[in-house]
Design brief:
Length: 417
Amino acid sequence: MQDHAAESERAARLQLAQVLLHAGNNAGALEQFAAVLGQNPTDTDALAGAAMCCDALGDSRRAAEYRRILSALGTSAPDDTMKASAESSELGDEVIPPAESPPQLDTSWLRPRLRMVPEPEPGDSVPAAEVSVTTLEDVAGMEAVKRRLNTAFLGPLRNPELRSLYGKSLRGGLLLFGPPGCGKTFLARATAGELGAKFISVGLFDVLDMWLGESERHIHEIFESVRRSAPAVLFFDEIDGLGRKRSQLKYSGGRTLVNQLLAELDGVDAANDGIFVLGASNSPWDVDPALLRPGRFDRLILVLPPDEKARAAILRLHLRGRPADDVDVPWIAARTPGFSGADLAHLCESAAEIAMEASLAAAKIRPITTTDFKTCLRDLKPSTRQWFETARNYVMFANEGGQYDELLAYMRTNKLL
Ligand SMILES: Nc1ncnc2c1ncn2[C@@H]1O[C@H](COP(=O)(O)OP(=O)(O)OP(=O)(O)O)[C@@H](O)[C@H]1O
Ligand SMILES: [Mg+2]
């Protein structure tokens, strides 16, 4: 029964992803593929789709990660190779022993294929620490978010005396949440830049490994390496994938992954000193509640679509270096409520394309104009709407403890309820 529901959800998400891809909404489609992967990280359809979206969004590192897993699974495998092969007993020429009960993450039959992938070197799973050059000054608008980051995190970190006076430890982390493309990752990087701390970004595929027990080892290695390079900001992007509610997980491997993450976050008191953990999620309601308890990702910060001032700044940022002196940025900013930073970047790309085509036709440079933007705006809709539609149910019916009050207020003001 439950399996049937999960399968229908998977089919619906994949279909929705197709529609979104068709409409050019790569970020939206990626979100759907990621949700399918959250349930089953070896879903080859979702992996292939996600890789394609990441390419389109310019995130080649993540695209390569998806492809790495795809190739480990044997690229052209049909979507439920795992299930089908476990149930029947054939996979091409290989004879697979019949499974007695449907295996969850029994990947032993995959091993011959996995040998195609080079064995990881020790420490391979630890993402490189970067020194972030982005600071909060680069983040346009978002005054409320910046204020909260300052009180909850930057202030205490910069003032050890004050911290000890109030008995405030450096434990705990923030969870940035909100619609896709609105600057969560950007803010996390800016926070590290602000502190001059190292920034280590961990995605689902930095951790995920087909080998049983390996994912947990990766998490442990990452924490160990970060402990050595403190002060550092350890950023878990898309934490809902990594720390999905254990009750929702179909594969048992995911449960031990959450447990390992919890153990590392709790650490021994001194061990995690100087590490500040940030997480980001588009669906905090799917995150295991244990991860949101005190000392873990205990403060939620809502990252909303940019306001008018921020939209103008983002547009200017993306028009920099392009022939666009006459573009009426405030006019566009006023007409793009609900657009995410990523939507605005896409809008600038599309307007630039029109001007480029005109330049090619006329064989001389034709600058980008406000009219080009008007033309594009006829077809472009803010991608955040769909997120708010999903959020609606949680905000109205699962707002225990009032953790979504701010979101509720925003949705009321903006008539999104
Ligand atoms: N306030 C802002 N000021 C300047 N640029 C911004 C701002 N918000 C978003 N952007 C731009 O939008 C891009 C997308 O933002 P980012 O990748 O951080 O979104 P996200 O919330 O992490 O999305 P996802 O949920 O899809 O991971 C950034 O690379 C940045 O260029
Ligand atoms: Mg992000």
